[in-house]
Design goal:
The structure holds two protein chains of two kinds. Chain A is of the alpha/beta class. Chain A is built from three helices and six strands; from the N terminus they run ββββαβαβα. In chain A, strands 1, 2, 3, 4, 5 and 6 form a six-stranded mixed beta sheet that branches. The N terminus of chain B is likely disordered. The chains are: A alpha/beta, B alpha/beta.
Amino acid sequence: MITLAISTFGNRVSARLDCAESILLVIIRDGVVASRTPMNLLPHGKRQILERLGVDVLICGGLTRKCVSVARGSRIRVIPWVQGDVEDVLAHFMQHELTPTS
Amino acid sequence: MRATLRARPSPRFANTILDSIADGVFTVDTAMRITSFNRAAERITGVLRDSAVGQYCFEVLRANICEQTCALRCSFETGGETIGKQVNILRADGREIPISISTAVLHDEAGAIVGGVESFRDLSVIEELRKEIAGRYTFQDIVSKNHAIGKLFDIMPYVAESESSVLLQGPSGSGKELFARAIHNLSPRAQGPFVAVNCGALPDALLESELFGYVQGAFTDARKDKPGRFALAEGGSLFLDEVDSLPRATQVKLLRVLQEREYTPLGASRAVKTSVRVIAASKEDLATLVESGSFRDDLYFRLNVVKLTLPPLSARRDDIPLLVHRFIETLNLRMDRGITGVSEDVMELLMQHPFPGNVRELENILEHAFIMCRGEVIGLPHLPPEIVQRRATIAVEPLSPFDSLERQAIVDAMARHDGVKVRVAQALGIHRSSLWRLMKKHGLR
């Protein structure tokens, strides 16, 4: 099972993780999307919230240097600087066309 | 007289005009997709025109307001303009840079909205100059323009984000608790409690029960369960001040908490899991105490994951004018007063005072002066007598005439120019590096 989070702005991937106010939480079982839950995020403590949600992989837009530093200390694998429609991005991830860098 | 544009410029002509402008300029359609992007916009954002055109502006500019309070969208909704709004953008290389933006709506000949235009100016250089001139760093409630404190400000957000234990070392009154609170407030635990314990103020016999709590029947007076400070700080941060005064037995128990993330309340049969970040502070050098055998080395290494050393106020005299202003602002609010400042001779005295009690002593001196002063400016008669008497003692100490004059000139200039070194150096007609050297020589920094 993989718990995937995509930081969102409307139907797009949010352009900056530090400013993102919502995520789409996707549970993937046996290579199939089992559930999708849109959630709001608080401005601070995003990493802790994502860790508590058991997120394995985070797809997001731009990362500030501070965000990069914080992400390094996390067990969550991050796919940053992604741009596009959330559905397209999810489809690419399901087809293993997006790979975590950390 | 009204000017009328008779000929519509060709797109190429318009691009040439836009490219000759030093500010970044782009236009969008009503769907927020970029329709033009000038050369300065390429330089500031690091995104090429060909990549930018056709994209959503919020995915190219990545400003911190794009997703909440977009200035262009606001212009579309109100028809009004935004002028000189300061925001920051995230460049493709991960660098955040400050810019000021102005927006306006574009109409067609029939008056219908067809898009918007945004111009933006890179404020990086101005911001750097501002910091250089003001030399002022603010961090939560801590004010300083001191170089050493500025370095601490730089790393504190990263320290705060981590879950590591932090050791704050510095003399009494140097602001260790203020720094601890700042770390907590900036951390992901900010919504949790911040609990402070002065280990040196509690008798050894009480310390353990204070920290870990006890259960009913643990001892004669334990009539009901009492949570300890660890329990009260659950999900937040526990600030252990004067950690050097912990008895050896309690040191062992604290070590276990840090290692195992659990503790056992007095009289309990089971350990309790804990999620508390420990921020410890000591006025003594813990490494020296480890060498002398009075502090456990294993606990020291656990606490000393990140060590921040706070300088005494005597080593950051350039902060005194700034701190005086800050305390006057705070005390005016707290005591409902209208004090406007201190006299020149008071500032001169404060710049020379050794401040064994550090920032706390300065605050106490000003609080005393607030009580004594009935006017708007604090003068020498309003200061605690021992401070003024000490000045008289210092004044009769033999100093070489030249050194004395040199020191006095710097102190006077610092007081006159609120400690802003660029201005102090200019006033003295010397280079900033010479000023630094002389301040060091006279113990003024």
